[in-house]
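Hey, I'm writing a tutorial for new members on how sequence and structure tokens pair up, and I'd like a real worked example in the thread rather than a made-up one. If someone can provide the structure for the chain below, I'll link this post from the tutorial.
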Amino acid sequence: MRPGPEVSALRTVFGDLLASPGGTERIAHLLAGTTEDFAPDLVVHTGAGTRRLADLTITARPLLLDLCDDFAEAAKPWHDRVDVISGKAESTSVTGLLLRPDSHIAWTGHEPKDASGLRAALHQWFGTPLSGAREPEQVSG
């Protein structure tokens, strides 16, 4: 980087951030992509029986936990990369969870039948959907 006022200002901002309480940890989490919450170990009732979420993530593959039977269809274009489990969970009001392979939450559903955020998260975290699948809608800002 060439010296100049912009670089000096950036160094000052980063120096202050890194010196602040929790600043180094925050930057490390941002760089590692772990700023999202870690998935709780829910009890999930599926057609195959009752399981803990920790047992369902043992494959270390991305997982969509569809808790309202509304999101599995939206995830089909990523079926080669994302496992889908439908069921009901105790002690939560969320309608779905998309988990990265490390069990950090990539998306949380709060409304049934609203899969637009899910499709965007699938695209962001797990790439382009299979050929012929609809791309996530772009939000202009």
